[in-house]
User: Fold these one by one.
Assistant:
Number 1:
Amino acid sequence: MFCSWALKFLPAAPAAMVVLVDLLLMLLDLSYSILCAVLQTLLPPRLKSVEGELCLITGAGGALGRLFALEFAKEGAQLVLWDCDTAANEHTARLARDLGVKVHAYTVDLSKREHIYEAADRVRAEVGDVTMVVNNAGVVAGRRLLDCPDELLERTLLVNCHALFWMTKAFLPQMKARNHGHIVTIASALGLFTTSCVEDYCASKFGAVGFHESLALELQAENQGGIKTTLVCPYIVNNGMFAGCEIRKELRSLIPPLEPLYTVQESMKAILGEQQMVCIPRLIYIPFLARVLLPWEANLATYRFMGGDKCMLPFINRTETKVT
Ligand SMILES: NC(=O)C1=CN([C@@H]2O[C@H](COP(=O)(O)OP(=O)(O)OC[C@H]3O[C@@H](n4cnc5c(N)ncnc54)[C@H](OP(=O)(O)O)[C@@H]3O)[C@@H](O)[C@H]2O)C=CC1
Ligand SMILES: CC1=C(/C=C/C(C)=C/C=C/C(C)=C/C=O)C(C)(C)CCC1
């Protein structure tokens, strides 16, 4: 921000001088961003209005997707709801319509690129240009890698990660034309650090985090500041998707599973506050930082102590017994 301004006034300065000034201004930028982030956490954030926005939510028939739809409806956004489960999606649509907003429900299989592009064309023709996308749909195989059919592993990557590419290719061009829009990625704490037996899920969510960050940087580089991005990384949510997953019993009250409504309300604060990223709860920033700052063995020791290394085993055992 400050750097480009200063360069205009220093055209003839020697290169070393320019670098030095640039460095100082970058440090100023850096301190300013940290200050803003600190203030953001201490003060109630200024929230934008989404009235009149056309907001598309994927996985809208699921636990978090339904709550997102209802929260956006309360804020006055017009909704486009996508899910492969027609009945669940229609149910969400009815609940949202009861709140007085226009809702358009589509049955879409996000694991198929062509379905995404076809549905996007239909939305453009039947409803209009989408201005907000909440990439929320997600799946997990829930089986041990070597016991899991390839198709199930592939599906996790297709829905949780590949679909982000096709969704963005389908809806970003219209946002770019107006330099206005918002792309939200519902990733996971398991997109920032990992645990055992969920290789498909972790790989897909790390992919989602990487995709999201690169897209955010691309929009900045192209001066498309009117298009916002928000990455949401929640810890385990108490809705059954990971039923059985648990850390060491004695430490569970330190970091209990999240309530779905709380998760969505915290996500909404970040989205409407145009925050770039949020971990829910904030405590999740600690293992995220520790993963890169500490040696592998040190992380392993803390994971073992907290029961984070084997937290998925009861979940995997449950799904495997259900299948066999
Ligand atoms: N629950 C948790 O503990 C956490 C979840 N998350 C993430 O939050 C997001 C929402 O999860 P949550 O609400 O809990 O999950 P749910 O399983 O409740 O909802 C996911 C929804 O997406 C739908 N869906 C699945 N596959 C497809 C597909 N191919 N095409 C279209 N829709 C599809 C599901 O339909 P169907 O039911 O028919 O499969 C379901 O309606 C996910 O991205 C998840 O990874 C992040 C952190 C923790
Ligand atoms: C691994 C690990 C932990 C447990 C994490 C768990 C249990 C995450 C579950 C996340 C889910 C289910 C996300 C879904 O998207 C602790 C205790 C925080 C300590 C650090 C290491």
Number 2:
Amino acid sequence: MDYQALYQQKLTTADEAVKVVKSGDWVDYTWCTNHPIALDKALAARQNELTDVKVRGGVTMWMPEIAKAEDAGEHFAWHSWHCSGIDRKIIAKGMGYFSPMRYSELPRFYREHLDPVDVVMLQVTPMDKHGNFNFGLACSHLADMLARAKRVIVEVNQNLPWVYGLTGTEINIQDVTYVVEGDNPPIAQLSAGGPATEVDKAVANLVVPQIPNGACLQLGIGGMPNAIGAMIAQSDLKDLSVHTEMYVDAFVDMAAAGKITGRHKALDKGRQVFAFAAGTQKLYDYVDRNPDVMAAPVDYTNDVHVMAQIDNFISINNAIDMDLFGQVNAESAGIKHISGTGGQLDFAMGAYLSKGGKSFICMSSTVTGKDGTVKSRIVPTLTPGSICTDPRSCTHYIVTEYGMVCMKGLSTWQRAEAAISIAHPDFREQLIKDAEKMGIWRRSNK
Ligand SMILES: CC(=O)SCCNC(=O)CCNC(=O)[C@H](O)C(C)(C)COP(=O)(O)OP(=O)(O)OC[C@H]1O[C@@H](n2cnc3c(N)ncnc32)[C@H](O)[C@@H]1OP(=O)(O)O
Ligand SMILES: CCCC(=O)O
């Protein structure tokens, strides 16, 4: 097969390629750093010819051009599988919606439950001599989406790292409708976060001693898991391995500090496995053609049966709040949608199935609102409209700067007592009164 000839045959401009989109279509921008740029701009330029175009994406790193116009919502509707701050802005504008998912199930949604996508547009690496374009930073659910897509337009970006993978990390020119060469913009970066706060350090000081040498790590999205990861990089831990959904800078720091060998991992020995990656240029340089890392579809990385086979699996995630029943909300503030379930529930359940495995949900005990009001993250009941990300039956360790409690096996009053013991002291008395009213407080000697 003459792949170069095929490439030339399918090469076109962004303006020409997006002409395949019709009113009423479902268009997929794929995921995070792989959202299209030149194609998005060209599609936005066609706004006035189009109505009811539904566009999917997730963990959106920059404001899509199609969402910028004041009347954008009359032409396009945005559907996010997982909200970043940008997705929140699109939703606030009234043209965006969240699509709930447990991330491990997303490939199956595309295989079984969703109609084939009319047009997929994504950034990919340049083509190799075998006619393949690599998905770079997002393996995730892309292969299953692309397998059923009616049309696929790839936008080549020379700056996208080539990430070796298990399967589902490339698309061949034969399966592509059009190739567009973009302007090769730098890959969008996610800040590694500021220095760890005193609260982050207090939480890390409780979690890190729970991690044995040889453990396998998953770090969730958000500030605190990454601060803990950075502190693991400076710890005395050794022979760690990585099996995660999202690969972040903290893992690169751990690898640079010689903490990661992957030698005790029963599966994918020696490889750091992830479904997608987002971070700074340091991370992008590290993962590029690096045999130490391996991208894999999210129904592999987030499969509880896979995690169960890896001993000492340690999962560290962040939450918005938790009620006295032990229900964890990691995705909304009442009806205000913030992020999504993502892989949190997958990892909370999977880590517990691993021999020696532990799942940690970490949070600061309080949060300060934009008006300066300090609120407890340990609340009597979840705020009406808030989402239960992890049901009380699935949580393991809950950690704040005031302590760490294991929720497994506890009755309702013991859960309430455990939750209150890690609340900020200023809120404990009120929480006890609330628990009494709720019939889940038992007078004890504490
Ligand atoms: C990735 C893996 O490998 S798998 C599993 C990981 N996935 C998950 O855990 C999914 C769910 N979790 C998450 O999405 C994140 O961890 C979060 C949202 C809980 C925390 O992420 P962070 O980026 O640290 O959140 P941050 O503190 O910046 O808060 C995000 C927003 O929520 C708001 N917020 C946070 N807590 C509260 C609260 N209790 N009440 C009201 N608003 C709140 C913040 O003000 C901020 O809003 P803004 O953008 O309008 O300013
Ligand atoms: C789905 C994106 C990251 C997460 O799991 O929170």
